[in-house]
Task: structure prediction
Amino acid sequence: MSNLLTPYAPVDRVPSLSILASAEPGSGKTHFSLTAPGPIAFLTFDRPSLDVLDKFAKQGKVIHRAAFDIPVGSGLNAGATKYKKAWDDFEETMLHAYQSGQYRTVVVDNIGGAWDLLRMNLFGKMDKVPARYYGPANARFNELIVEHNRHVGRGINTIMVARRDEVYGADGNPSGRTKASGWKHLPYETEVNVLLGHVAAEGPGDLGFRMQVEQCKTNPPVMGTVIGDTSKGFPPVNFQTLATMARPDVDPRHWT
Result:
């Protein structure tokens, strides 16, 4: 009989966080992700405002950007080569970002675009695919997403930016609730899930940006906390604020 059990001993690790940040358009997703420690590997399927990128680059933050598109095709046969190359390019770039040792933070904006691209690569379409065919797609996407876990201890943060999708009830009608778009298993693979939003300013100096902690595996008591409204003394919406709450055991200076 095989025995694969071995004694476990704690090891020293450089702290890091994996975050799923979802929001409606214009709620500060890109801005939040760029407040993370640099150098940043910024992989994008969106076309974020270049003004946001310029702002951080002018402040001296090192940002390496790679933009990806889902090729235009007509069914699997017509677009297979394009989809495969586009997915391979994304996959190789993401693996390089983790394995090269160059970056402190890896950002994918938005992660739903990556999931769409993988499905086009495998199926040639994104809808009406029987659930029984999703095994290989789920396994391959999971393999890439958990790459962060293989580098835990090296201090590489991960931020997966996502849009919000409507949640429909059993009757097929909108429920009034939303969820992070993309791969449905992603919220289980990240340590912290946050919902970003924008409201009317509530006082002088308040820009209206808010962030609610929906899930926090590293410090569960902060779940439900809303960050923002600096006019009332609350901390600003940025990576450092969230990381300090999620990992109170880590010196806050580490997250700068």
